[in-house]
What does this fold into?
Amino acid sequence: MAGSRVAHATLKGPSVVKEICIGMALALAAGSLWKMHHWNEQRKVRQFYDLLEKGEISVVVQEE
It folds into this structure.
């Protein structure tokens, strides 16, 4: 009886190039989300001060 040959996965060490590429992709994704968040906050602040300068809003409570 001939022995059946079964292909077993051989374990290899971590691929340095693959790890670097994955790390760079994750860093770019996280950095772009962080930058978009800051642009959105900056836009809100700029809009607030524009409305304040035009007199459309006020930070002083009106007395009755």
In short: The radius of gyration is 29 Å. The first helix runs from residue 16 to 54. The CA atoms of residues 10 and 16 lie 18 Å apart. The mean pLDDT is 88.
